[in-house]
Amino acid sequence: MVSYKELVFVNSRELFKKAIEGKYAIPAFNFNNMEQMQAIIQACVETRSPVILQVSSGARKYANQTLLRYMAQGACEYAKELGCNIPIVLHLDHGNSFELCKSCVDYGFSSVMIDGSALPYEENVELAKKVVDYAHQYDVTVEGELGVLAGIEDEVSHETHSYTRPEEVEDFVKKTGVDSLAISIGTSHGAYKFRPEQCTRNAEGRLVPPPLRFDILKEVEKRIPGFPIVLHGSSSVPQQYVDIINKFGGKLEAAVGIPEEQLRKAAESAVCKINIDSDGRLAMTAAIREVFAEKPAEFDPRKYLGPARDELKKLYMHKVVNVLGSANKA
Ligand code: G3H
Ligand code: 13P
Ligand code: ZN
Question: What residue ranges line ligand 2, CB within 6 angstroms?
């Protein structure tokens, strides 16, 4: 057992409090490898933003849990070396069992998500409470979820949304003791967030998705005022990356995300954590495809992973400064 406090992470409690008061959101970026981690830290140090480093169970399988933990620990040292000791949360993304959450708490995570959103309500409550009871003994913060997001992740996939029912949130928060709540208001996971028939088209023929359900968010805020809200599935699927990928041999059709103005608006509310993974995947893939197409003789991985990392850093800086509003809040 190792406490996150020895590893110099922080839990999310204070960060969320300040984010709600200051009307911004903390970026929660997923990482699976060194280049993603470097880009996240470089971007957040340069913009002086607090950050949540997210590890999914898929990431744990891909990169090995021990390596990821030491990388995150290294990230804190790296940030200091770059000149700014930004607050860093090490968070389990979409924990699907008590055992997984416990293992992360025991392994030095400062925050865990227990995602019982696909379970019947009472089972979701029971599971979340069990995780909270364990995690709080070690001052680890817990995120729960109500409402199901559509989309595909490694471990879970749902075809349709079921929006959060505002009438459940107060009871859920009270019974479980969670520190933050992920809600479903129309975001979804992955690069294909909406089917073309759900969208309209703008003047350039681009797909425009249906707006987020700010009415549900408002209703939730009314019932649990000042309580930290989390938005998953918040990639915007930048069309310039989709175009580059398609230009250089990729095949992404009808990829569409959440418009950044809507996320900016959400960040000004009680939404204080915004999860972004797919946009990073697109940025890296676009940069790598471009190098492969333009420099076919190149075979040194640093020559394509380096540009991918640079593009990722640019993307993260943009999110922090222009979308989440967390720059200079470290
Ligand atoms: O919400 C899911 C995250 O994007 C993680 O995805 O399960 O493929 O690692 P993953
Ligand atoms: P995106 O797929 O929209 O990046 O969402 C990521 C996420 O919610 C991670 O938990
Ligand atoms: Zn998610």
Answer: 30, 93-94, 189-190, 232-235, 275-279
